[in-house]
Specification:
Length: 646
């Protein structure tokens, strides 16, 4: 499509994001393989390109001899208008091929706010919006990612859903697509429904009771299981992806090479969907981390390495990893960063290793709740004293700014809980000035409005109304600025409550919410994660026109026995355990981390046939010979050949 696209590019902003040709990207001859994937991140290139999940699947699929994968992203409205005017369809940035020509369009949803962009992408591609209207020649539209754990609001728009980790399931889907070429679409879908972790919404019927709640979700085909279980990838050292990270042509939200050092979390933060649905913990070995860092830096040219996970300092070998990498890359200008760090996992030794290169990336700590009582409710077990001590350590070791992340609108929250954030921020500045011996330390307080999510103990909770959230945030700003000598060193960033209410509608909605999504899109809604495009009024009007009560899906508390839209989709967590944890939250009772305590029967390991996997002790990331003298062939640590299960 590039000959048709190129004349349009001088007329749009940031045209470089549409041309492809990034380092480590590539194309295969179309006719050399039988199965063609278009991998989509339903947001702008600058957000989508660094997405680790999409990058991994891109490599995994392209390593196969029988498949190719290319990438596509949401195009900005300026280009979309020109594409419609000139008949240019949605395209991939790798080969500039029309998305409608591919066998599978795989869409990765990190957030529900990408749903309207999905409809824009389908429309530009010439693919019917509704799965029921697609014929044998249309791509199979697949949804994946964290938001796909409740895909019911987009059930009318997608053909299949992949639950959980994607490394293995995309290969099995490829096998089915290859084996069923020439089959009728319904037959292909029934065959795909037999793949573990694959959910086919059209093979299920949903009925509703007089009270508006779901009465039953019933399979309509023998091929469809009553309950679909997520996929879990174990032994992460066997999946060292991405081996060749993509290097963007345009500016993106993350300018670094990243390595996922472990997956999953058992801290039990009750608000955290990611921590719940990715259990159990599976650590990558320090040796495996080191090899990925070395390979990634060589192939990308980056000078910063992000050690990624939900809480990177919780890796049982984080000290070994940080020291080994600091030794390995000392004097090379390569920086190390932990994008998010738990307060109770950060220490002096780790701080020194992360700063040995002389580069200090930002430090982010997430207490989440303003008061100690509220932190017990959400199971974020950290005291104010721990936070002050930890931040003081960071300032003492050369950092001049830290970011503190909180949420507003948490269950049982009061105004006083939120105002405690101001007190904590003031104490952080005081401690920072004392530790650093200077007055220019800063703290940024970032506030997000809480959205209850499926597959968490808070899935039954009532979401706080936007006007309540906004009022509390105004009071917080006043409290921070009440002491100007401290407040001038504190930045406050927050998200208004209105976008979060829409996210709440989309995250806990059922199939009836699909009507709202389509109406909002037809009314012009898209790029909902961008404040300049989001319109709360348009969403509320769309809900009214679709006959959907927004409050019923958002600010209403659910009962224990209500059938939830996602109950037939199994993340491994026992529903009874989640309910009990919800009751513990209301009583402000904490739950331990099962990595270090006996199993507390959340249900994941026996249900999924998995187990917690810890890195072996005593291993090192790599030989710490200086870079210029190092052998090109790394020697594996014999300690890594044993069982990694714990």
């Amino acid at each position: 499509m590039f000959e048709s696209l190129e004349p349009l590019l001088p007329r749009v902003r940031k045209p470089v994001q549409y041309v492809g040709g990034e380092r480590n990207a590539g194309t295969k001859p179309w006719d050399s393989v039988p199965v063609h994937w278009a991998l989509c991140y339903p947001d702008a290139y600058e957000v989508g390109l660094p997405n680790q999940g999409l990058m991994i699947l891109y490599e995994v699929l392209n390593e196969r001899d029988d498949a190719l994968a290319e990438r596509t992203y949401a195009v900005w409205p300026d280009l979309a208008a020109l594409m419609r005017e000139h008949g240019v369809p949605q395209f991939t940035v790798d080969g500039h091929r029309p998305v409608g020509a591919f066998d599978v369009l795989g869409v990765s949803f990190a957030t529900e706010l990408g749903y309207t962009n999905l409809l824009s992408i389908l429309d530009l591609a010439g693919i019917p919006l509704h799965a029921a209207d697609r014929g044998d020649g249309h791509p199979l539209v697949l949804a994946g990612g964290h938001a796909a754990f409740n895909p019911e609001p987009i059930a009318d728009f997608v053909d299949i859903v992949a639950l959980g980790d994607g490394e293995e399931v995309v290969g099995e889907i490829t096998d089915v697509v290859k084996a069923t070429q020439g089959w009728r679409r319904r037959e292909v879908l029934e065959r795909l429904a037999a793949v573990p972790g694959v959910y086919v919404p059209s093979l299920y019927d949903v009925t509703y009771g007089e009270d508006g709640a779901i009465a039953a979700v019933t399979p309509t085909s023998d091929a469809a299981p009553a309950r679909v279980h997520k996929r879990t990838t174990s032994d992460l050292d066997d999946w060292p992806y991405p081996k060749q990270p993509l290097v963007p042509m345009a500016e993106t939200v993350h300018e670094r090479m990243s390595v996922e050092i472990f997956r999953g979390c058992t801290r039990g933060c009750r608000f955290c969907q990611a921590g719940m649905i990715t259990r159990p913990v599976r650590e990558r070995s320090p040796q495996g981390v080191g090899e990925m860092v070395e390979q990634g830096l060589k192939s990308s040219g980056y000078h910063e390495v992000g050690l990624l996970s939900l809480s990177s300092a919780d890796h049982s070998g984080i000290g070994e990893i940080a020291k080994g990498l600091a030794d390995r890359y000392e004097g090379t200008g390569t920086g190390l960063s932990l994008p998010s760090t738990r307060v109770d996992a950060f220490n002096v030794t780790l701080a020194e290793e992360l700063t040995r290169s002389g580069r200090r990336s930002g430090l982010t700590f997430a207490p989440e709740g303003g008061s100690e009582r509220l932190r017990k409710v959400i199971n974020k077990m950290v005291s104010e004293e721990e936070l002050i001590a930890t931040v003081g350590t960071a300032y003492e070791h050369g950092w001049r700014q830290v970011k503190l992340y909180f949420m507003c609108g948490l269950p049982t929250e009061t105004d006083e809980d939120v105002l405690q954030i101001a007190h904590m921020a003031h104490e952080v500045i005081r401690a920072g000035r004392k530790a650093a011996g200077r007055g220019d330390v800063r703290a940024t307080v970032s506030i997000g409005a809480f959205v209850p999510k499926p597959h968490t103990p808070f899935q039954w909770a009532a979401q706080t109304a936007p006007e309540v959230v906004d009022a509390r945030l105004r009071k917080l700003r006043e409290a921070i600025n009440s002491d100007r000598s401290l407040g001038r060193n504190i930045g406050l960033r927050y998200h208004d409550g209105e976008p979060s209410l829409v996210e709440g509608l989309l995250s806990r909605g059922d199939r009836r919410v699909g009507r709202v999504i389509e109406q909002a899109w037809r009314d012009g809604q898209q790029f909902d994660g961008w404040s300049e495009y989001f319109s709360y009024e348009r969403w509320m009007a769309a809900a009214e026109r679709a006959g959907v009560d927004v409050a019923w899906f958002t600010t209403r508390e659910r009962g224990e026995h209500e059938i939830l839209p996602w109950d037939h989709l199994d993340s491994g967590l026992d529903r009874g355990w989640l309910w009990d944890d919800w009751q513990d939250a209301l009583a402000a009772e904490e739950q331990d981390d099962c990595r270090w305590t006996p199993c507390f029967d959340c249900g994941v390991c026996p249900t999924m046939g998995t187990e917690i996997q810890m890195a072996p002790p005593g291993s090192v990331p790599l030989s710490i010979t200086p870079v210029g003298e190092r052998s090109s062939t790394p020697v594996r640590n014999p300690a890594l050949t044993g069982d990694r299960g714990a």
